[in-house]
Amino acid sequence: MWLRKTRTTIVAVTILGLLAVNACLPRPPSESGGGVNITVYGFSIMKESLEKAIYPAFAAKVKREHGFDVRFTSSFAGSETVTNQIIAGVKAQIAILSIERDAQRLKDHGDVKSDWRALPQKGIVNKTPFVILVRKGNPKGIHDFPDLAKPGIRLIHPDPISSGGAQWSILAIYGSELVKSEKQNGEADHVRALQMLQAIWRNVISTPSSAREARTQFELGNGDALVTYELDGLLMKLGNAKLDAEIVIPEATILSEHPAVVVDRNVSAADRPVIDAFMQYLWSDEAQRAFVKFHFRSSTNDALNQENKELATIRYPFTVDYFEGWDKAYPDVIERVFRDSVQKGR
User: Fold this and answer.
1) Can you give the pLDDT at residue 345?
2) CA–CA dist 211, 110 (Å, integer)
3) HSE on the CB side for 309, CA within 13 Å?
4) Residue 133's pLDDT is what?
5) Are 7 and 14 in contact (CB under 8 A)?
6) 112 Rama sector, left if φ>0, alpha if ψ -120 to 50, beta otherwise
7) How far apart are CA 245 and CA 264, in angstroms?
8) Is residue 10's pLDDT more than 80?
9) Residue 246 — φ and ψ, nearest 5°?
């Protein structure tokens, strides 16, 4: 152990903000080449921003300011899958999830004991709107979610059973019709929203297990359209100039918000200081700017979003608060509307 038991209480009290104020993190036994390893499980689209920017910057900061090494071990999958893996016993110390409901599942199971909502921005590290990817030139004339219901459209959509992104997508499609009908008529039209979601789902030809797997299928030439995170569409489009795809911005769409939690069950007293310091780092301007560079939107400072000119302007953006949070959105929309009225009736 790199932290003496007699110092644990002092460190636990003083750790938050250590990096920000340049205080001293307790030093691991780096003389033996140990250092510290942090294990992070994340939902699929977190991979690039973490591995290419956040991890290296944090490790360099600790090395520069405190003189020891920090390494990271990562695993990425659909948010529901990641949550199930942690519940089953994998040794993740931090989870970054697509939906708040998965964070609550970890808390209910006893894996997360602390209150993630006490973290900055109630635990939300970044956000991104849902958009539609279409083939180059938009040959099917898809300009908004209702166009996905046209006869002959072949839609790729991740599986809501395993993918948090798929659940966000259902809320985006259903909620967009509620928001637009409310703007047009002064009242949300639930019948109109249900009928559109039913018509769109009849055009789904494949349901991969995560948003990233859905993106891969689309990249390989499958389907006419894909509903996905804006950032994944930008990563795909900007990373491949030859890609046969364009991004369509719906008139109304949801901003997904992504919580980070400490999996307390897997964090020892010795590891806690660096784990907590990394968690605080996620909301620093340096980390938030890195998220924006990789096409997320900042959860702390909207001004940072202006630094990425690829981020779209949404006419009618909304969040899960439109549905009164995940405690209402999941049973009311994902279960009753999608599972019971859309999926079973397909």
Assistant:
1) 64
2) 27
3) 0
4) 95
5) no
6) beta
7) 42
8) no
9) -135, 160
Contacts for 52-59 with beta carbons within 8 Å, 24 or more apart? 52/294, 53/290, 53/293, 53/294, 54/281, 54/282, 54/287, 54/290, 54/291, 57/286, 57/287, 57/290, 58/278, 58/281, 58/287
- Closest by alpha carbon to 59, among 77, 40, 44, 41? 40
Q: Assign 34 a pLDDT band (cuts: 50, 70, 90).
A: low
SS3 label, residue 238:
helix
pLDDT at 2: 36
8-state DSSP, 152: T
Return the structure tokens found at 136: 């180059």
Residue in the structure block whose two tokens are 């489009």: 237
pLDDT tens per residue, range 274-299 = 999 999 999 999 999 999 999 999 99
Burial group, residue 295, by CB count within 10 angstroms (0-12, 13-18, 19+): buried
pLDDT (tens digit per residue) in 172-231:
999 999 999 999 999 999 999 999 999 999 999 999 988 889 989 998 999 999 999 999
Q: What type of residue sits at position 53?
A: A
Q: d(Cα 19, Cα 61) in Å, to the nearest integer? A: 8
